[in-house]
Amino acid sequence: MTVPDLQKCKRDRRKIAVVTAYDALFARIVEQAGIDVILVGDSLGVVVQGKSNTLSVTMEEMLYHTKLVAGAAQRSLVIGDMPFLSYQVSQEEALRNAGRFIQAGAHAVKLEGGAAVADRVSAIVKIGVPVMGHLGMTPQSVHQYGGYKVQGKGKDRAQQLLEDAQALEASGAMGIVLEAIPAGLAKTVTEALTIPTIGIGAGPHCDGQVLVLYDLLGLFDEFVPKFVKPYAHLKVDALQALRRYKEEVEQGTFPSDSESYH
Ligand code: KIV
Ligand code: NA
């Protein structure tokens, strides 16, 4: 999967499935399942690091996880998520940090914001790095929103989001994540753009969908938004396995003869 392939998906009306991954083990599983876009999301701050938001994730941490994923992925498009403060401060920093993701093995970067970051997007695109935008409930602005809340509600907010999406497209963005916005607005935006929209909590009309891997697998249950669908219940399985292991160690039934060397 390449960036031009993604554009072709939209033209051919072939829906794009995206998931996050943060390490080689899961990157391989995701790829084996035929999913062709992997986002190394700064959501790792929450699901891997256990923080309450993504704001403290650093470039060094993102690059480490990007290297793990990119080193394992063979056919997938790997997108590195630019963390808070890695693109906001200056164009120079944004360019250098975007480039560092590419050096770590990513094929593209993602950053949050609309018209306000349009200059950054076009500067990064000009050095040959594809950029995915991210609009709606952008987690790096959580304090401005006062929590993780649906965005783009009401006529004015909806119009503003549409204009932000058009500004991103005009800046050369190759796609846009739409997070936690009404399905009708996501449909309008998707139809207004020639670049693909990737929804999360944005209804069924987007050109693709993205989910956080550990949400999808039912591993992370501390905070489960309405838009998450757990396709497995791996936390339940893990708990069961660990409890049985503990029991068998305590009872002396593990290891048995077949797990022992003679
Ligand atoms: O960090 C992340 O995982 C994301 C996706 C949920 C879009 O930004
Ligand atoms: Na993110």
TrEMBL record:
Cofactor: Mg(2+)
GO terms, molecular function: 3-methyl-2-oxobutanoate hydroxymethyltransferase activity; magnesium ion binding; methyltransferase activity
Lineage: superkingdom: Bacteria
Main localization (coarse): cytoplasm
Keyword Nucleotide-binding tagged: no
EC category: transferase
Record-listed 3-methyl-2-oxobutanoate binding positions: D42, S43, D81, K110
Reaction catalysed by this enzyme: (6R)-5,10-methylene-5,6,7,8-tetrahydrofolate + 3-methyl-2-oxobutanoate + H2O = 2-dehydropantoate + (6S)-5,6,7,8-tetrahydrofolate
Compartments, record wording: Cytoplasm
Family matches, as Pfam families: Pantoate_transf (PF02548)
Ranges annotated as spanning the membrane: none
Any GO BP: methylation
CDD domains, per database record: KPHMT-like
Residues that, per the record, bind Mg(2+): D42, D81, E112
EC number from the UniProt entry: 2.1.2.11
PANTHER family per the UniProt record, alphabetical: 3-METHYL-2-OXOBUTANOATE HYDROXYMETHYLTRANSFERASE (PTHR20881)
Subunit structure and binding partners: Homodecamer; pentamer of dimers.
Family: Belongs to the PanB family.
Role description: Catalyzes the reversible reaction in which hydroxymethyl group from 5,10-methylenetetrahydrofolate is transferred onto alpha-ketoisovalerate to form ketopantoate.
Protein name: 3-methyl-2-oxobutanoate hydroxymethyltransferase
Organism: Nitrospira defluvii
